[in-house]
Input
Amino acid sequence: MSVREFVVLGTASQVPTRHRNHNGYLLRWDGEGILFDPGEGTQRQMLRAGVAAHDINRICITHFHGDHSLGLAGVIQRINLDRVPHPVTAHYPASGQKFFDRLRYATAYRETVALREEPVAADGTLAEGPSYVLEARRLSHPVESFGYRLTEPDGRRMVPELLARHGIKGPDVGRIQREGRLGGVTLDDVSEHKPGQSFAFVMDTRLCPGVDALAAGADMLVIESTFLDEDEALATDHGHLTAGQAARVARDAGVRHLVLTHFSQRYPDPQEFERQARAAGFEGELTIAADLVKVPLPKRGQGDTR
Output
């Protein structure tokens, strides 16, 4: 059975706190794992969350500020120590190549795993496979930053009532799925459109076109909300979003499940982020991220055409 869930490893902005580790997130997508922004302490958070090095197939770095990348050295070395049996691909801003090199070879270790470096220099598609397309979009931050989006290809959902109407059952169901036709019955006659799921990951940024492109119609949007709305000027100056700004992006984009994260240590009450997100008009499912929480991607409902 396929598993699609978002595992939160850390949610702090800039510095860790007593209750929040530096950033770190793992997306389980069927048989693959995509690790986003491994900040300092990610290895230990993986252990606590039940995430193994073997679970990682890709690493996606949004930008090279320390709270989003200092854990990369340890993660890469752990991948090699555990002799992960499959290649691992790393995506990161091409302008930060020197930082990636320093982190990859921060100390001596034995390389046993093929780590593929695929730096990102512009908006576009990074990878295509049977279960998702991975894309990047440029964000607006004091250093070059990219957000990431996974989109599952659309498919077809078999409808039992239509199958029965046309007398198709047993092995013939698989046959019409494979071949697209059985006698005078087509696949369209016994199935309905099944839109693919989508997941967007947006970290440190001001409002910009890249944010909107990544969020558009996403089933789950994970997005930074470093500041509360009363500090919007400070957020803009430092290249960040507020809770209200993030929620309005999600509202206007038709996001189904919004996950807010990357919180400044200046705010003692995390529920204020939820209050401001709701006040901004977002009515979908909302999660205020906490370390070590696992959030399932929203399931597609019958007749969902988005």
The chain has a mean pLDDT of 95. The first strand starts at residue 4 and ends at 10. The CA atoms of residues 41 and 155 lie 39 Å apart. The first helix runs from residue 42 to 49.
